[in-house]
Design a protein that fits this description.
This protein has two helices and seven strands; from the N terminus they run ααβββββββ. The chain is an alpha+beta fold.
Length: 158
C-alpha cells in the first residue's frame, strides 16, 4: 500500500510539473513571437509585451506588491539623442524608430552630409565618419560609450 501511494504521489507531481513547464513554454513562445517585435520599441513591441505579462500575472492570481501596479519604472544611462532628428536619403524624409535607428555607440552630428553609396546596403561619408546600413529588421542595443563615428541602420522597404 505504501508503495502504491508513493508511486501515485510521484506520478501526480510529475504531471503537475509538466503542466507548469507547458505553461511556461507557452509564455516564452508567445513573447518570442513576431507579434512582439523582439520586445523592443519598434512597432510598440515593448508595450505589447508589458500588457501581455500584466494579463498573465492577473490570470494566475498575482497581486501587485504595492497594491497598485505590476509595472516598475527604471532607467539605464545610454548614449541618447535628445531633440529633433532630421534625416533624409535621396530627398526622402525618414522617421526615427520606424525607418531607421541610430546605433547607441554613435557620436552625434549636427550638419547636412552627403553619403556615398558603396553597395546596395551601405552608404558612407568618410570625411564625417558616418555609415548608414540598410537592413531587413531594425534591432537596437545599449552602449555606454560613444565611438568616433556615427552608424545608422535603415529598414529596407519592400
Amino acid at each position: 500500500m505504501k508503495i502504491k501511494l508513493t508511486l501515485l504521489l510521484l506520478l501526480s507531481s510529475k504531471l503537475l510539473f509538466a503542466q507548469d513547464e507547458a505553461y511556461a513554454r507557452k509564455i516564452v513562445d508567445t513573447l518570442s513571437s513576431s507579434h512582439f517585435w523582439g520586445r523592443g520599441y519598434t512597432k510598440n513591441g515593448v508595450h505589447k509585451a508589458e500588457k501581455y505579462l500584466v494579463g498573465q500575472f492577473k490570470h494566475i492570481g498575482l497581486a501587485p506588491m504595492d497594491g497598485k501596479t505590476f509595472l516598475q519604472p527604471f532607467s539605464y544611462s545610454v548614449n541618447t539623442y535628445p531633440g529633433k532628428m532630421d534625416v533624409a536619403i535621396n530627398g526622402q524624409q525618414l522617421v526615427p524608430g520606424q525607418d531607421f535607428i541610430v546605433s547607441p555607440e554613435s557620436r552625434g552630428i549636427k550638419k547636412i552630409v552627403q553619403l556615398e553609396q558603396r553597395d546596395s546596403t551601405h552608404f558612407i561619408d568618410v570625411v564625417n565618419r558616418i555609415i548608414v546600413v540598410k537592413e531587413n529588421k531594425l534591432t537596437w542595443s545599449a552602449e555606454q560609450k560613444a565611438t568616433d563615428y556615427t552608424l545608422s541602420k535603415q529598414i529596407i522597404k519592400s
